[in-house]
Amino acid sequence: MSKEYLDFYEYVKHNKLGSVFKDESLKKYCTLKIGGKCYILYKPNSIGSLIKAYKFILTNKLDYIVIGNGSNLLISDEYHSKIFICLKNLNKIMLNETTLVLETGVMGNIISKKMSDLSLSGLEFLAGIPGTIGGMIYMNAGAWGKQVSDVLESITYLDEFGKVCEMKNIKIKGFSYRKSPFMKRHVIILSCTINLKYDITSINIYNNYLEKKKLTQPLNTYNAGSTFKNPPNNSAWKLIKDTVGNISVEDALVSTVHANFLINKKNATFNDMKTLITTIQDEVLKKHHILLEPEWVIIE
Ligand SMILES: Cc1cc2nc3c(=O)[nH]c(=O)nc-3n(C[C@H](O)[C@H](O)[C@H](O)COP(=O)(O)OP(=O)(O)OC[C@H]3O[C@@H](n4cnc5c(N)ncnc54)[C@H](O)[C@@H]3O)c2cc1C
Fold first, then answer.
1. Domain ranges, ordered by start, for the chain
2. Can you spell out the DSSP letters for 173-193?
3. Tell me: the pLDDT tens digits for 99-148?
4. How close is the Cα of 131 to the center of ligand 1, in Å?
5. What are phi and psi of 74, to 5 degrees?
6. Per the confidence metrics, is the pTM higher than 0.85?
7. 3-86 — its CATH code?
8. Is residue 185 among the annotated active site residues?
């Protein structure tokens, strides 16, 4: 590992900017449980610490990638010569009447339940989605016809120069189905503001969504949610089921519960999963003339 990365490790330790690990396995940080080791894994303990650490990274031109709960990631088995910044510990929640401010690492499924318990409605559709709110904003996560950009009032983020910025008027800022404007940039989402509405039936809506999810998705497996985006007016799972059924490559399998969920049974490698993905894409293209686009973020 080069000196600058070791200096970063020492800088974080010395200034108590959070936890930091060398040669850390990335399997622990993603729900698919696939991935090699990285130079450094850094978990900031506050937004202030992250800002200081990020300035060090920018000044020294270190390579980095931001992750939340790793619930939409396929990570290669290679050694990753960079810093992985995991934001799960930035998880403060501030509620003022119906206005909710969340730090980036707050889990979507947990806040959804908490708000529904308080009869505060708006986030029920996140029931059972195991991502951080920052990851959900980046991916524009959604379910049951709703997506995160529908409920956001504003977002704060660290831009490419380490400056804290605010984004308002979310509806006109380039969010669409599983797309956010952050995908074209190298920024770090810090927090967001969401306006909720008082609704006594919120918990029923939440329970209904969660039950449906439990019945239709293999939630207790190593997976990363839907592998492919749904093509316009079609469903990826139907195309996969119709074309290849429940095929597998070693321990990488198409789920029998939901064909758009690819599962790591136990010891699937990155290459097993990549081969399964490309086989599905090739076969669906041949039979239906549709190219399935991965929803997963693939880190080579
Ligand atoms: C069982 C299961 C069910 C799921 N169901 C759904 C569903 O119904 N709908 C849906 O849309 N998704 C679903 N997903 C996928 C996943 O939970 C979402 O995509 C979620 O938004 C990912 O959040 P994360 O924190 O895990 O992000 P990660 O997977 O860690 O990261 C995803 C991307 O976001 C970037 N990123 C993460 N945090 C930040 C940040 N703070 N700033 C900048 N970039 C950031 C990462 O660099 C990466 O490119 C499901 C996943 C699982 C395992």
1. 3-86, 93-202, 218-299
2. SS-BTTB-GGGGS--EEEEEE
3. 999 999 999 999 999 999 999 999 999 999 999 999 999 999 999 999 99
4. 5
5. -115, 115
6. yes
7. 3.30.43.10
8. no
